[in-house]
Design brief:
alpha+beta, Phosphatase 2c, domain 1, 5-stranded antiparallel sheet, rod-shaped
């Protein structure tokens, strides 16, 4: 029911009383011929006042109804426009205080919706960009690590990698290049070169910088280089990443002297990134974890040992938040 109709019903008793009063006074004026002239004048004035009251009431009803119905209709149209997606448009309404407050509320809601939608669009584009960069980073990480391991056809070592990724990957490069600066009588097949480098920054950009630096200069202070000489059964170590070497016969870790170490067939070699080092807050806990597994499963071969180490690391990362990628590279020397 419209506001005008409701107001009309509300004022209907007043209008009916005034209308009845006018009829009664007219009838009395018509019938009462014997009344004095002053009395007729008084009745006439009362009738005029009653008619004026009726007209004023009806006119006020229409004016008040229009002042309420028009702003309400404008608010209704504005609400439909907001529902249709027309955000950010200001609604200017003149009327009662409550109607103006409602219009201001709709304006605030429209502005908030406009800002939220713009923020969602920006976040959507940002998520798409981040997802695209993440996928590219994961593909690049696969090419730098796992693909090189799969493509390695050397019979000097067996290799397994254990990787647990965080939300922001940090690149690790593993390569098996030909050893540079060979002695004159050295045979290239007797030397097996392991090269590991870690990105300094997270994400795709860090991996790209790592590849660029590696192509420009392979030997830097941030890269680790291991050279296994199969003739002398020695391992030469250079770089910041200190490997862990487990003796299969002695059942303990070996300590290198001046970057050189004597190794035997079946010995294990472990390289890991800074993410694993920071996760365990030092090399001591990493040594304890690996030695615990090797004491039981080292004789079963690299496949079983790597699988058990992967289970131990997966269980440990479930109890703590993984802030960085974890890379643990497992090697087993096959021939002296």
């Amino acid at each position: 029911m419209k506001i005008r109709t409701r107001l009309l019903f509300f004022l209907l008793p007043t209008l009916a009383c005034n209308f009845a009063l006018v009829i009664m006074l007219l009838a009395y004026n018509w019938i009462g011929e014997t009344a004095s002239k002053k009395f007729h004048v008084s009745l006439f004035l009362i009738i005029i006042c009653a008619i004026f009251t009726i007209v004023l009431t009806v006119a006020s009803l229409f004016v008040i109804a229009n002042k309420i119905s028009r702003p309400v209709q404008k608010l209704n149209n504005s609400a439909l426009a907001i529902a249709a997606g027309q955000y950010g448009e200001s609604i200017q309404v003149k009327g009662p205080k409550e109607i103006v407050e409602l219009a201001n509320t709709l304006n605030t809601m429209s502005e908030c919706l406009y800002e939220n939608i713009n923020r969602l669009k920006e976040n959507s584009l940002l998520r798409e960009r981040m997802y695209g960069e993440y996928e590219c980073a994961m593909l690049l990480q696969h090419m730098m690590l796992q693909k090189n391991i799969d493509d390695c056809r050397s019979d000097a070592v067996a290799i397994k990698s254990i990787t647990l990724f965080s939300e922001e990957p940090k690149g690790l490069l593993l390569d098996f290049p030909k050893p540079p600066n060979l002695p004159p009588l050295a045979n290239e097949d007797d030397l097996f070169h392991i090269h590991m480098a870690e990105a300094e920054e997270e994400g795709f950009e860090g991996m790209y910088q790592l590849l660029t630096e590696y192509k420009r200069a392979r030997e830097t202070h941030t890269h680790t280089s291991l050279i296994l000489d199969r003739n002398t059964s020695t391992l030469q170590i250079k770089g910041p990443h200190i490997p862990l070497i487990w003796s299969l016969d002695d059942h303990k870790f070996l300590e290198p002297a001046n970057g050189l170490l004597k190794v035997d067939s079946g010995d294990y070699l472990f390289l890991f990134n800074q993410g694993l080092l920071r996760f365990y807050k030092g090399q001591k806990q990493i040594t304890e974890l690996i030695s615990k597994v090797l004491k039981v499963f080292a004789s079963d071969g690299l496949e079983t040992t790597a699988a058990m180490l992967h289970k131990e690391l997966s269980f440990a990362t479930k109890r703590k938040d993984l802030e960085e990628d974890i890379h643990l590279l497992c090697f087993q020397i096959l021939t002296p």
